[in-house]
Amino acid sequence: MHILIDYFKNYKKQSIIGPLFKLLEAVFELIVPLIVAAIIDKGIENNDMGLIVRYVGLMAVFALVGYSCALIAQYFASYVANNISCSIRADLFKRILRMNLTQYDDIGSSGILTSLTDDVNQISNGINLFLRLLLRSPFIVVGASVMAMTIDFKAAMIFVLVVALLALIIVLNMRTTLPLFKESRVELGNLSGRTNNGISGVRTIRSFNKSEDDFNTFSNQNSKFYSIQIKAAKISALLNPITFAVINLCICALIYYGAIQVDSGILTKGMVIALYNYMSQILVEIIKLSNLVVNVSRSIACVNKVEDMLKEDDVKASDNADSIDRSKEAISFKDVSFTYLNNSDATLKNVSFAINKGETIGIIGKTGSGKSTIAKLISGLYESYEGRICLYGKELNSIDEDNKAKLIGLVTQKTNVITGTIDENIIVKRSGIDEASIVEAINNSCLDEVIDRTKDKRLHMLYSNGSGTGLSGGQKQRLGIARVLAGNPEILIFDDSTSALDANTESRLLTNISNLKNKPTVVIISQRIRSVKNCDKILYVDDGEIVGFDTHENLYNKLDDYKNFCLLQGQELK
Q1: How far apart are CA 352 and CA 387, in angstroms?
Q2: Which residues pair with 331 in a beta bridge?
Q3: How many angstroms separate the most distant Cα atoms in the chain?
Q4: What is the CA angle 274-275-280, rounded to 5?
Q5: Angle, alpha carbons 416-419-420 (nearest 5°)
Q6: SS3 content of the chain, % helix, strand, coil (to 5)
Q7: 114-173, pLDDT tens digit by residue?
Q8: Burial of 318 (C-beta count, 10 Å sphere; 0-12/13-18/19+)
């Protein structure tokens, strides 16, 4: 809740004005029963029409002023709620963009989507109700009890008993429902994830005739979410009937007591009506307070979930890329071990190696050996690891994101296409990329022959949906390579990003990369020997450990596993 308080600090005046006008409306409401009592005891009893008209007119004025106060309070409550929710959503989105892969994997895309939409909306509703009712409802409840004391102290004890009993019921209800609402938010995220998997993987599901199995899995997840929601709703729903029962029983006791007092001449009929009106006000406000408790309980669960995402520390040392000593090793791993979230076995185990500036290094190994993990660690996508990873002697985690992006260019196996022209897909809204850089990147990535076959050339439109790109897998990989080359990074990492290219295109591409003017340090990760055999050195990885780090020829002659790996691909040493 501390983060939410920080947001409220930006709207101090509005957060005070709204509740104050609600309190002003409540003051008028508390005076009305006394006016009604005066109308009955003085106006009707004495048949004084002038007094009745004056008091009715006064009540009309109170109603008009109260209505105006309610409108003002509603405006400021909505203003604060909408602005805070907008700020939370913006900060949440910024936080998501700065997450490393460990944090992203922990929360999941479905959890992120639920937080950005449903959780923030629930927080907005909770803030709105909080500002409108949190002060008003208790003020009416306490005020009605105090006003009852001014009429008859003994009768007011019934009010005190009601308030104490209902307060206990609300606290017990809140303590029970809050954990359930928190659990339901988690299950909603899981259900969203299951839905997303079913939609995105519908072709695979249908091709393996697993529609029924997927439906059953979704149904089980949905039933679990449903049962938690129903349990929380049932407990929350008990508030209203219990409140009605307690209040109505107390009203019966109040009328019984009032009738005796009227017969004894201690109370007037107007006083009894006033006491009844105050009890009715308490009934209405307790019901509002009950609904407030339910909504705020949900909102608190959402706030806690969002707060967990926002409270991650983003502060890092900001080593300037221009101040880095480039005479040192470009990339160095020292006793690096890494384990993915929720995995018991380490993916990398005490990995150590060094790459000098300008070298081209190949990383090869079987599927699951840890090749891509090394690429992600070099790129800074995962920050939680054991050991040391340095770029030019600087600890990787001490370099801020902007400078890291200038130093490193990562090309992944799958290229994400954005809706826009080919040029826009290459630039991706980065500043400092000029026309010469774009042309050079297109030529070096062999994307030029793809562009030449389009009608609009570089203005050819691409679309983010898979079927609308008009590009094959290999063409999209070339687009991804051009995107990275346009930024002229000092360290280039190709994570199996030539897997969809034919041998001739791959050969031309690798030749172009080796002839780049800025002579970057290049790391090529692949499962194909032909992609890495001409590298300065090859890092052979098996089961998360380095088996060999040498030239292709030396590894072939010294390591039987590497030799067999080559022979399986028809790559004999010549």
Answers
A1: 9
A2: 355, 391
A3: 121
A4: 95
A5: 115
A6: 65, 10, 25
A7: 777 777 787 888 888 888 877 787 888 888 888 888 888 887 788 788 778 877 877 777
A8: exposed
